TrEMBL record:
<dbReference type="GO" id="GO:0005737">
    <property type="term" value="C:cytoplasm"/>
</dbReference>
<feature type="site" description="Part of the allosteric site">
    <location>
        <position position="168"/>
    </location>
</feature>
<dbReference type="InterPro" id="IPR004547">
    <property type="entry name" value="Glucosamine6P_isomerase"/>
</dbReference>
<feature type="active site" description="For ring-opening step">
    <location>
        <position position="165"/>
    </location>
</feature>
<feature type="active site" description="For ring-opening step">
    <location>
        <position position="158"/>
    </location>
</feature>
<dbReference type="GO" id="GO:0006043">
    <property type="term" value="P:glucosamine catabolic process"/>
</dbReference>
<dbReference type="InterPro" id="IPR018321">
    <property type="entry name" value="Glucosamine6P_isomerase_CS"/>
</dbReference>
<dbReference type="GO" id="GO:0004342">
    <property type="term" value="F:glucosamine-6-phosphate deaminase activity"/>
</dbReference>
<dbReference type="GO" id="GO:0006046">
    <property type="term" value="P:N-acetylglucosamine catabolic process"/>
</dbReference>
<dbReference type="GO" id="GO:0005975">
    <property type="term" value="P:carbohydrate metabolic process"/>
</dbReference>
<comment type="function">
    <text>Catalyzes the reversible isomerization-deamination of glucosamine 6-phosphate (GlcN6P) to form fructose 6-phosphate (Fru6P) and ammonium ion.</text>
</comment>
<dbReference type="InterPro" id="IPR006148">
    <property type="entry name" value="Glc/Gal-6P_isomerase"/>
</dbReference>
<comment type="similarity">
    <text>Belongs to the glucosamine/galactosamine-6-phosphate isomerase family. NagB subfamily.</text>
</comment>
<comment type="pathway">
    <text>Amino-sugar metabolism; N-acetylneuraminate degradation; D-fructose 6-phosphate from N-acetylneuraminate: step 5/5.</text>
</comment>
<feature type="domain" description="Glucosamine/galactosamine-6-phosphate isomerase">
    <location>
        <begin position="33"/>
        <end position="247"/>
    </location>
</feature>
<feature type="site" description="Part of the allosteric site">
    <location>
        <position position="178"/>
    </location>
</feature>
<dbReference type="GO" id="GO:0042802">
    <property type="term" value="F:identical protein binding"/>
</dbReference>
Amino acid sequence: MAVPLSSGTGRRRVPSQNGRLSVEVVIVPDAKAGGALIAGAMADLLRRTPDALLGVATGSTPLPVYEALAARVRSGSVDTSRARIAQLDEYVGLPADHPESYRSVLRREVLEPLGIGMDAFMGPDGAAEDIPAACEAYDRALAEAGGVDLQLLGIGTDGHIGFNEPCSSLVSRTRIKTLTEQTRVDNARFFGGDVGQVPHHVITQGIGTILEARHLVLLATGEGKADAVAATVEGPVAAVCPASALQLHPHATVVVDEAAASKLKFADYFRHTYASKPDWQGI
Ligand code: PGA
């Protein structure tokens, strides 16, 4: 069963288009700068909406975001006392207290450093006996909580967002998915390098579910993500690259370091656009 939130408000807010209707690409010098930029956007959101529901991602890429936000919490410039956290995806079959279940990872890497309790956390139950029911319950719980205000995303080398692997339906809801061999190999480093330990199945928010968040922020760093980033931003909207669904969202931001931006044909245009934007607009 999905973990209920202590303070779901059931409110709906309209997506913030923030003055533009295209995927904004922000090219930053390195991962740390990307983390600081996105943590700044989260801090601004929490100032405007103290009980904002932040959608968070696992993996190596988002860590600089959480570190930068935790530094702001420690310095007292961000108040997370009413903030709420929603999980993006989860392995199927790992007990919730397994150190590599995403619930455990998020508790360690996000909730504890930000001073947010598990009563303000919601996620799908990857250990449920009835997985389809757990998926439906999580989609329902997200809606009842008022929807995700800002969803942070990584991207797989194969273009996945959440665990929506290539050829996932662009209107999919939270459901069980089978990981590609590439994703299992990519994630083996979290299981002592043993790909045999990486579960084959996961629960992931669907692409349609993800698109309901009010602001999507995808962070990609390193050359290994350059092809996926180019397909996401400059390729067609196509299920073969699930992240390309961001092109359908009214407020999507793709933050990339120079290496991840290295295959973008319009990199100079993106740099010029970002350098010229008004300060009040934020990302
Ligand atoms: P990574 O994972 O940040 O560890 O590269 C990203 C993803 O699989 O979404």
